[in-house]
Amino acid sequence: MNKQLLRVGEAADVLAVSRWTIYRWVEEGRLEGTKIGRGSLRVFRTSLDRLVQNNKTQEMNLTV
Asked: What pLDDT, on the 0 to 100 scale, is given for residue 63?
């Protein structure tokens, strides 16, 4: 079962970026997150999937 809310470190691992990049992207609105408890940030898995889909590049035709 895939988790719907990811910790910042987990989201960073999925996207292969730093934790600080995740915080910045949430602040910029590129990712959606929510604060839990006393300010612990969680990132919605759907927003990670959406970010990846929106930034996909077309397959390159490699001719040798």
From this structure: 65
